């Protein structure tokens, strides 16, 4: 029985000059790993919701983000910790409040994920 693989070539037909040029420009493994980690930071609906809320504001505290997302404060704190670890948000303490804001990389990635939807949600 012959199985056709729809995702791969049945014949090796390498365009060597083009492939070599692109191979020289590819992401280094370490950079790809770091960037994939950042992308994983937004790969959860709650985290994407929180990051989108932060895109619309300069800074928000956990209480505001909890209210906006309709999620428990401890769950919001957990997701914000993941976003901070991924380098997508930064935080600062103001008395008893913890205030979050998107980093420049976080803003760029959220905008890339939202694409044209950013205008629709504003």
Structural commentary:
There is one protein chain. The mean pLDDT is 89. By secondary structure, this protein is mainly α. Strand 2 (89-94) and strand 3 form a beta hairpin. It contains seven helices and three strands, in the order H-H-H-E-H-H-E-E-H-H. It is elongated. Strands 1-3-2 form a three-stranded antiparallel β-sheet.
Number of extended strands = 3
Contiguous low-pLDDT stretches (5 residues minimum) are none
Number of helices: 7
Radius of gyration: 20 Å
Global structural class: mainly alpha
| Sheet with the most strands, sense and barrel status | 3 strands, antiparallel
Fraction of residues in helix: 55-70%
- Beta content: 5-15%
The span between the termini is: 54 Å
Mean pLDDT: 89
Series of secondary-structure elements, N-terminal to C-terminal: HHHEHHEEHH
Shape type: elongated
Identify the strand order in the major beta sheet.
1-3-2
């Amino acid at each position: 029985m012959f199985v056709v693989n729809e995702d791969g070539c049945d014949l090796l037909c390498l365009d060597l000059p083009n492939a070599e040029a692109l191979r020289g420009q590819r992401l280094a493994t370490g950079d790809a790993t770091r960037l994939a980690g950042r992308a994983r930071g937004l790969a959860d609906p709650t985290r994407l919701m929180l990051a989108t809320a932060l895109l619309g504001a300069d800074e928000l505290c956990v209480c505001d983000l909890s209210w906006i997302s309709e999620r428990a404060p401890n769950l919001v704190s957990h997701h914000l910790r993941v976003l901070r670890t991924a380098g997508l948000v930064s935080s600062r303490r103001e008395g008893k409040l913890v205030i979050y804001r998107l980093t420049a990389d976080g803003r760029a990635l959220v905008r890339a994920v939202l694409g044209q939807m950013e205008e629709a949600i504003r």
